[in-house]
Design a protein that fits this description.
mainly alpha
Length: 232
């Protein structure tokens, strides 16, 4: 394969990664909107559409492994292909968070929301915005932009803390609220984890460009870490 043909293959894969990212963004925003409206049918559609995200992930992995085996790339080319394998895996898991929120809406059945959703949509919008810019940085090998995105995860964590405190007040006021509070706490947890995985994508982009791993995790997360539901 000529260098020009190899570059064409890489660009094609990058375009597919961006498409996968768009599918994940759409699923996450849709899952929160469906929860906000208590639209069960919309949530069920998101659960079904997650299969397309999974297929896209595995198709991309196939393409990447084949290209690595055929071309035996070195240096930045190898880092790009290996890191892209990791990024598509991250995206598929982020799609699972959207499916998880859709599942919560379905499992809630006829129950009303404990409170109007205000900060949860903010968490979703912020996470999607971070993902969109992280993938743009990946596509253009822009390590500087990638390095600046993870700190924004602190905003998502702050929203999580706020939601947690509000839900605890509802529970203290009336223990009958525990189940409905837990549903929303799980939704917020999925959104918090979604934003965390954006950081992983940014770190991969920095590795592609610089050739070394640089952990760029956010500042103090200890407060909310002690309050997260478990990942059982």
């Amino acid at each position: 394969m000529t260098r020009k043909a190899f570059d064409t293959e890489i660009q094609k894969i990058k375009d597919e990664v961006i498409l996968l990212g768009s599918m994940v963004e759409h699923a996450l925003l849709g899952s929160v909107e469906a929860l906000k409206k208590r639209d069960i049918k919309a949530s069920e559609a998101i659960i079904v559409e997650d299969k397309a995200i999974n297929r896209k992930r595995f198709d991309l992995e196939d393409q990447l492994v084949t290209l690595i085996a055929r071309q035996q790339p070195m240096a930045q080319d190898l880092r790009l292909l290996a890191s892209t394998l990791e990024i598509v895996s991250e995206l598929e898991r982020m799609g699972d968070y959207a499916k998880g929120i859709a599942n919560i809406n379905v499992r809630m059945g006829d129950e009303k929301l404990l409170k109007p959703l205000i900060d949860i949509p903010r968490m979703a919008n912020k996470g999607v915005d971070m993902l969109h810019r992280a993938l743009t940085a990946y596509a253009s090998n822009d390590a500087e932009t990638a390095a600046g995105i993870p700190v924004e995860d602190d905003e998502v964590d702050a929203l999580y803390n706020q939601i947690y405190r509000e839900l605890m007040v509802f529970i203290i006021e009336d223990p009958k609220n525990i189940e409905r509070a837990n549903w929303l706490l799980w939704v917020a947890h999925n959104l918090e984890r979604f934003a965390d995985r954006v950081t992983n994508i940014c770190e991969r982009t920095m590795y592609i460009v610089h050739g070394s791993f640089e952990e760029v995790k956010q500042s103090d997360d200890e407060f909310w870490k002690s309050r997260k539901p478990s990942d059982n």
